[in-house]
Amino acid sequence: MFLAFGEKKDKEILFKMIIWFIIGIGSTTLLYEFVKPSYTYAEAKAIVEQRYEEVDVIDSHSTTSTQVETGKEIYRMTAMKDSKKIQLVFNPYTKEIIFLK
Fold this sequence. Notes:
Blueprint: H1 8-35, H2 41-51, E1 55-58, E2 64-66, E3 73-81, E4 84-91, E5 96-100
Antiparallel strand pairs: 1-3, 2-3, 3-4, 4-5
């Protein structure tokens, strides 16, 4: 395809477009790496069960939601403790666990 452009000016424009495309893809990838959560839902579930041995996390359909204050993703979990269902929230950025009433 590169050779299909006849004039030198057309080849330079194509080359610049390819370079900007590569820069754009690289920038998007780096941005994602900086803003993605530190823990996945499966890792968060294992951390909760490890830290609180009496708690068994039950998978739910709605596992993520957005924290209003920060606009970042949090994991909402349903768990069993002493034969009772409880709700908890795991912050994948700070590793904070909050039990809801």
